[in-house]
Amino acid sequence: MKTISDKIFELLKEKGMSQKEFAQRTGIAESSISDWKKKRTNPVSDKILIICEVLDVTPYELLSGAEHTGNRSRDNNTYVISKETEIGMLVETYQKLDTNAQKRLIGYLEALKELS
């Protein structure tokens, strides 16, 4: 599963922005940004809004599982699902699983799909 910092580095690469420029524009120390990459940690919550502003993404795009599409509009690959529905409960349960369990579940779903 991708971390928030993984998404940040993907966006930096996509935008052709260096870590140094990102640090200057956000006011976040370069050493902190390097730690995100080396130690696979995430930025502190009070930096999320400035990060989103500099990277031109919404907090939803950065923090959710929604993939960045290069603009702020929703595309056909993004869904809003109520937690009250069966699908919502399925998604919520999936997100609580560790990575290995998520992979197994995806494998089960692919096998079931081939049976039908």
From TrEMBL:
Domain (HTH cro/C1-type): residue spans on this chain: 10-62
Entry GO MF terms: DNA binding
CDD domains for the chain: HTH_XRE
InterPro entries, sorted: Cro/C1-type_HTH, Lambda_DNA-bd_dom_sf
Pfam families: HTH_3
SUPFAM superfamilies cross-referenced by the UniProt entry: lambda repressor-like DNA-binding domains
Name used for this protein in its record: Transcriptional repressor DicA
